[in-house]
Design brief:
Blueprint: H1 8-36, H2 62-68, H3 70-97, H4 100-115, H5 118-129, H6 133-159, H7 163-170, H8 175-211, H9 223-230, H10 242-265, E1 279-281, E2 293-304, E3 308-319, E4 323-327, H11 334-341, E5 350-352, E6 355-358, H12 368-378, E7 379-382, H13 386-389, H14 396-407, H15 412-425, H16 431-434, H17 444-455, E8 462-466, H18 474-491, E9 494-499, H19 502-508, E10 511-516, E11 519-525, H20 535-542, E12 592-593, E13 599-600
Parallel strand pairs: 1-5, 4-9, 4-10, 7-8, 8-9
Antiparallel strand pairs: 2-3, 2-5, 2-6, 10-11, 11-13, 12-13
Helix pairs in contact: 1-2, 1-3, 1-10, 3-4, 3-6, 3-8, 4-6, 5-6, 6-8, 7-8, 8-9, 8-10, 9-10, 14-15, 14-17, 15-17, 17-18
């Protein structure tokens, strides 16, 4: 962070900006009288001992007028920058809060304005608003807005892909609150850094407008106005343009260099791609609901344009106090299943299901307020990466308390007390201190337990944990699993535990659902994994080393690779990798119930 500030460019820019600010403060008091003094004997004179850079058509000292004009020039530039910044942020963030089509329309308008020459846009606005300083400031502000909007939109798009934004959407946090509390604080730094460069651009633009006669009008004057007045004498006394031209050049250069140094000092990697709203379509339900189930999904399918179908006709049930493990290789559709249940499938995905019941209720049949309360209080989601699940700009306690204040109507003090209690319940030491810390001050295991505590701020009936232990070491992983097991036992909630590690699933879960290429291929009790019947399930178990594994031989692997969601054929998707493949595998087998609580989709099982 310190190295960019020690470069010659950064030091030069800082010095020039400080000089401009100092002149803006001291200029009018020190040189204002000399700048206004009319001397008929010295009209339109060149450089002399009395007037170092010459005089204007009324004999006024040009150096004094340039120094005295610094305050007005800089002040107008700052006002124009403020207008452009606020308008650009508003335009850039509108797509994040508007419906999809309206947001795309705003983006199209911004793209059109960015393509339009900035000075022509400023001149057009100034003509409409009226010639003078007010019109010029408004024109330059309007000209700066599109570039600010483009920057804001790009930054907002990257931030809205974070898991904490997805969680806020799942909890139905109002869009304006997501914008002001979660999006803007996390993109404020690059926007602030861009202000320095925009100030330089505004200063140059205003000077150009005044030089063309569309900006500051007599008797007021800024640097551009001084250039306009001196231009008629430049061929006779060239020195008359030196002071205002040099001031415009050095000030614009200073702000540009300062902004560039600040941007380099604070450069950071952009977050993940954005998520958009899911589009849900629910066909009529068939058959009676499963009694006592906290989650019942029937024939769930998630599709994207282009024939991409990551989840295909999935059905599963989670009972009260039960932990169901959803396992499979990466790309099998596990996380997309969780997103569909939580109503956070990214746009333009489409979700269809014969039935999706949460605690016996279909959320899509409820009104907006009731659906928000149902999802916010009955469903808790624990994402894979706790770093992106927690907003880095907010303290841990505030993020936990928001759940209680938003959905339970708790007071701030009561919500904070509950946050301390929930952190203590997940075995975080000194929870009263942790609530006052930011996420980056916690270890990975503490952050993950804090996310679990956030889910327990209400009274969830279903907990969805999407690979919550993937990035943790074995010791911390065991602690998180113990916390999750205790949370289910204490609240009697059901849990859907998503993982690619079948060993972890067998230790934690009561029942296991195995997915491959978007479909369930086997469902069985966790203690019966040693009797798994589907070749894919047996291959997953066989690829796990144990104490009896021969270390002199290569580890067992599953040959080939899982087909992409758009490439799944009509037959058994595992056939190309299966040692038991037969002619019947050209037709896809349906999931069929077998004895001992097994359900298998395999012709040879």
């Amino acid at each position: 962070m310190r190295r960019p500030w020690k470069t010659p460019a950064a030091l030069t820019g800082s010095a020039l900006v400080l000089l401009v600010v100092a002149l803006a403060i001291a200029g009018p008091p020190l040189w204002g009288a000399a700048a206004a003094r009319i001397e008929p004997a010295d009209i339109s004179q060149g450089a002399s001992a009395a007037h170092w850079l010459g005089t204007d058509a009324l004999g006024r000292d040009l150096l004094a007028r340039t120094l005295a004009a610094t305050r007005l020039t800089l002040g107008l530039a700052l006002i124009a920058t403020l207008i452009g910044t606020l308008a650009g942020i508003l335009l850039g963030t509108l797509p994040a809060v508007l419906p999809y089509r309206a947001g795309r329309a705003v983006i199209a308008v911004v793209d059109l304005l960015v393509a339009f020459p900035a000075l022509l846009l400023a001149m057009f606005t100034a003509v409409v608003a009226g010639l003078g300083a007010r019109g010029a400031v408004l024109g330059i502000g309007v000209a700066l807005a599109p570039s600010f909007a483009r920057l804001t939109g790009n930054l907002a798009t990257t931030v809205t892909g974070s898991d904490y934004i997805a969680a806020a959407r799942m909890l139905k946090v109002p869009r304006h609150r997501i914008l002001t509390r979660h999006v803007l604080p996390n993109i404020a730094e690059p926007l602030i850094l861009n202000v320095a460069q925009s100030t330089g651009a505004a200063l140059l633009g205003l000077s150009a407008m005044s030089f063309l006669g569309m900006g500051v009008q007599a008797p007021d004057y800024d640097w551009g106005r001084l250039l306009n007045e001196a231009f008629g004498h430049v061929y006779v006394t060239p020195s008359v343009v030196i002071a205002p031209a040099l001031a415009v050049t050095l000030a614009g250069l200073g702000f540009t260099l300062l902004g560039d140094a600040a941007a380099k000092a604070a450069a950071r990697t952009a977050p993940a791609p954005a998520r958009g709203p899911a589009v849900a379509a629910v066909p009529p339900a068939a058959g009676p609901p499963v009694p006592g189930a906290v989650l019942e999904v029937r024939d769930l399918t998630v599709t994207f344009p282009g024939g991409i179908t990551p989840v295909r006709g999935l059905s599963l049930t989670v009972g009260q106090g039960e932990i169901v493990g959803l396992v499979g290789e990466s790309g099998s559709g596990k996380s997309m299943t969780a997103a569909a249940v939580g109503r956070i499938v990214p746009h333009p995905g489409t979700v269809t299901a014969a039935r999706t019941l949460l605690c016996g209720t279909d959320p899509d049949t409820l009104g907006p307020a009731e659906r928000r309360r149902t999802l916010g209080s009955s469903l808790a989601m624990v994402f894979q990466d706790p770093t992106s699940s927690l907003n880095p700009a907010l303290k841990v306690g505030g993020q936990l308390a928001e759940v209680a204040t938003l959905h339970d109507g708790a007071t701030r003090a009561r919500a904070e007390r509950r946050a301390v209690e929930r952190l203590a319940a997940v075995h975080i030491k000194d929870p009263a201190h942790v609530v006052r810390q930011y996420p980056h001050e916690l270890s990975g295991g503490m952050r993950q337990r804090a996310v679990i505590a956030m889910g327990l701020m209400g009274t969830p009936r279903l907990i969805i944990a999407d690979e919550p232990t993937t990035a943790l070491d074995v010791t911390v992983q065991r602690e998180v699993l113990r916390v999750l097991r205790e949370a289910v036992d204490d609240t009697r909630a059901g849990a859907l535990f998503i993982s690619h590690d079948i060993a972890v699933v067998s230790e934690l879960c009561d029942r296991v659902v195995v997915m491959y290429a978007g479909r369930v291929v086997e469902e069985l009790p966790a203690d019966a994994l040693h009797r798994a019947r589907h070749p894919y399930t047996r291959a997953l178990i066989g690829s796990l080393p144990d104490m009896d594994t021969d270390r002199g031989r290569p580890l067992t692997t599953i040959p080939g690779r899982q087909p992409a969601p758009a490439d799944v054929g009509p037959g058994c998707a595992f056939a190309d990798r299966c040692a038991q493949v037969s002619a019947r595998c050209a037709t896809r087998p349906e999931l069929a119930d077998r004895a001992d609580g097994h359900a298998v989709a395999c012709w040879e099982a």
